[in-house]
Amino acid sequence: MKKLVVLSGAGISAESGIKTFRDSGGLWEEHRVEDVATPAAWRRDPELVLKFYNERRKQAMDVEPNRAHRILAELEDYFDVTIITQNIDHLHERAGSRKVVHLHGELFKSRSSCNPKLVYDIEGWELKTGDFCAEGSQLRPHIVWFGEQVPMMTVATQITEEADIFVVIGTSLAVYPAAGLVYYVDKDVPIYLIDPVQPDINLSKNMTFIKEKATVGAVKLFDKLVKEV
């Protein structure tokens, strides 16, 4: 099977109703990013940070994977698919995708404040003050905050370098370091970009731009790729 690697961003989850920091009327307007998604915010007001991500979990539990998520899962019948996602929700997994790399962390996991190797699943939506790791420190959201390193980038880069087909869906390639993954795709590998707004990028003659939202573009992608198998 050919290796199909997908880089997904906020646009695919937005069609399921997940708000993003950059949406008009989205989280930027409800909270400043500096107040809820940085290490400094955690040190300054952990209660606010916990509340913020508790609300995100509740919202994520109320939405469903959309057609784009499901199509990417269906492509596993034809390709060896790995999803590299900038999203922290579990909509790819819920749609049936079996290999998902989360660059920016996972909403339904927590980790130790003192030992990043101690990671736990969150049952339900709430992470509270007084929820401790095995070493006795407060659990924090398992999220890569602004200003923190992205530990899964090395893994994602290796996967990208091995791709036979590379797909970008739901991201304008404006958020780094994730956007830089396209530069690790072999020059002979076809790249498909699905987004309503065409990014200012032209990497190779093998690049195909599908100017559609994720759910519509995924259908077109599926039809094209499956015909070529």
Cross-sheet strand order for the largest sheet: 3-2-1-7-8-9
- Here the CATH topology of the largest domain equals Rossmann fold
Number of helices: 9
Averaging pLDDT over every residue, what do you get?
92
Q: What percentage of amino acids are in beta strands? A: 15-25%
Taken from the alpha-carbon principal axes, the silhouette is elongated
CATH classification, class level of the largest domain = Alpha Beta
CATH structural architecture of the largest domain: 3-Layer(aba) Sandwich
The structural class is: alpha/beta
Structural Rg: 18 Å
Give a quick set of tags describing it:
alpha/beta; SIR2/SIRT2 'Small Domain'; 2 domains; six-stranded parallel sheet; 229 residues; 31% helix; 9 helices
Please give the structural blueprint.
Elements: E1 3-8, H1 10-14, H2 27-30, H3 33-36, H4 39-44, H5 46-61, H6 67-74, E2 80-85, H7 91-95, E3 100-102, E4 105-112, E5 119-121, E6 139-143, H8 153-161, E7 165-169, E8 191-194, E9 207-210, H9 214-228
Provide a compact summary of the structure.
This protein is an alpha/beta fold. Helices cover 31% and strands 19% of the residues.
What does this structure look like?
The chain is an alpha/beta fold. It is built from nine helices and nine strands. The strands form two sheets. A six-stranded parallel β-sheet has the order 3-2-1-7-8-9, with helices on both faces. A three-stranded antiparallel β-sheet has the order 5-4-6, covered by helices on one side. Strand 4 and strand 5 form a beta hairpin. Helix 6 packs parallel to helix 9. The radius of gyration is 18 Å and the shape is elongated.
